[in-house]
Amino acid sequence: MKAKLAIASVIIAAISMPAWSDTFKQEVPQAVLPMHETSKPVEFDHLRHTQVECTQCHHKNEERGMSFTSYKCASCHSTAKKDKSIDSSYFKAIHGRKALPGDLGTRCLSCHVNEQKTRSKDKPSLTGCTNSSCHK
Questions:
Q1: Do the beta carbons of residue 116 and residue 126 sit within 8 Å?
Q2: Which of 57, 95, 121, 126 falls 20 to 30 Å from 28 in CA-CA distance?
Q3: Signal peptide location in the record (predicted)?
């Protein structure tokens, strides 16, 4: 009798597992979110980071629910000039995206106008189309 009860309990638990796991399932946010904890505000697209575990950036907090642990992009994306060609480099993460219609986060000038202000005059323009570092 105990064996039948144990088997029945295991079967019931196994059947209810999918429904129970949905309670803890967290959807990936669809929105591109502004990250202000970085040295310069950046747009963070969760859909481009689905291969990364959520817990690498977020943790559960009893008082606030899910919270963000401040990381710099460079903790995952190398900013070293020698690493520019690596797929996970900061350069490729930013410059390797194609702008889609309505995709405001991927417009060159959204970053390059501000960057140009800090750039020395002897370097190629980041904002002009003719003779710029993009269009030679």
A1: yes
A2: 95
A3: 1-21
Q: Counting every residue, how long is the chain? A: 136
pTM for the predicted model, two decimal places? 0.45
Can you read off the two tokens belonging to residue 35? 């990250």
Q: Give the number of C-alpha atoms closer than 13 A to the C-alpha of residue 73, restricted to the C-beta side.
A: 22
Q: How far is Cα 95 from Cα 46, in angstroms, rounded to an integer?
A: 17
Which residues 6+ apart lie within 8 Å of 12 measured at CB? none
Q: How far apart are CA 76 and CA 95, in angstroms?
A: 16
**49-53 long-range contacts, CB within 8 A, separation 24+:** 52/76
72-79: which pairs have CB atoms within 8 A and are 24 or more residues apart?
72/38, 72/39, 73/38, 73/42, 76/52
Q: Which residue in 109, 111, 110, 135 sits closest to 124, CA to CA?
A: 135
- CA–CA separation, 88 and 85 (whole Å): 9
Sequence letter at residue 65: G
Report pLDDT digits (tens) over 61-117: 666 665 666 666 777 888 788 888 888 887 887 777 666 666 655 567 777 887 888
